[in-house]
Amino acid sequence: MPTKYVRSISSGVKVGGVRGEENLVSVHFRCYDRGSVRQVYLDNNATTLVDPAVFEAMKPFFLENYGNASSIHTLGQKARAVVEDSRAQVAELIGSKTTEIVFTSGGTESDNTALRGVATALRSRGNHIITTTIEHSAILHPCRQLEAEGFRVSFLKVDRQGLLSLDRLREAIDEDTILISVMHANNEIGVIEPLKEIAALARDRGVLLHTDAVQTVGKITLDVENLGVDLLSLSAHKFHGPKGVGALYVRGDVALLPLLHGGGHERSRRAGTLNVPGIVGLGKTCELAGAFLQDFGTRVGGLRDKLEKGIVEGIPDTVVNGSTRERVPHLSNISFRGIEGEALLIALDFQGVAVSTGSACSSGTVEPSHVLMALGGDRGLHKSAIRLSLSRMNDDQDIDYVLGILPEVVKKMRQVTPTYRSG
Predict the structure, then answer these.
(1) Domains delineated in the chain
(2) What is the pLDDT of residues 381-390, one digit of tens each?
């Protein structure tokens, strides 16, 4: 049978359905029917459902107001106006000035632009960059490339909870340090790094601070002035916006050379024709996220706690990875001793539950997560981990369903695992 939307949590809007059918989709839509198997999506750190209100806001800029935002005719100026409105919506969510928002294609481009843009702009002043061992690959890989180009990069270790030591950072800064990049919250374990303290230390030493905030923007209250960061990356599709659009916050006086060269778009900080529908979607996403922030922290956080508590109490030999205090409200990373995380992911998928074993950008590997390995401990236990990430589209029924099937799935897998039986 074709996929059909079957449930909504609050009032919705109508959109085109499968094979011409029309379906009611709510702003809080999450669940759909795939035959007789219930679908529960708990891989929201990989990507999220586009909010129907965001989709509706974008549609006119594909089919009606399709002008190039750099054109001076009427259609072009209409596009320019909505781009600037969207820039203001992004700025309002993160507490910045509109002139400090640079639109990009997403978190990876934002991260690369921040690293390479600052490194090349300040190379005459120094060649040392500091980051951590648990960063996203969009930070780690560019840093490795910068090393190959003659920069010196320090990859600082974190503690068993995933937190960076301020003393370790202080010791790493020297006279050649030009940039520190520390993610706001880790995408695999959700730990929130002490950015305010890191920013104060960086400022005292005259060093710029970038943060990958892809997993926190729209999910926890965030103000760039309060945090004290100089650059910040965000991506729309991580909080119910479209894929292929994001932004980089660049504090007004920060020297930054563009990653892409061409026309003088985005105040000469990012060349390329602006993705007007995507930018409109990002702006609307930020507007909605601001309205839902309190709900996200309390309701979604409560769902995560219910899920985690049910797993730990109902299934023996489970371990929650990373700090359970300093973390985002929507994520739990749990190891199930004696079984492979990839195998558990597949078993859950057969039951209609979507989870992951780590970053979606490194899917397909059977190696343990580099983030979990950086915490130290048992390699085998790290290979048994899955990441459960929620969004505001999830509800109590989702959690009840997972808690209803997961213990039996794990039990059956362990029964055919000799190493677990002998242990």
Answers:
(1) 1-26 (no CATH), 27-49+293-422 (3.90.1150.10), 55-286 (3.40.640.10)
(2) 999 999 999 9
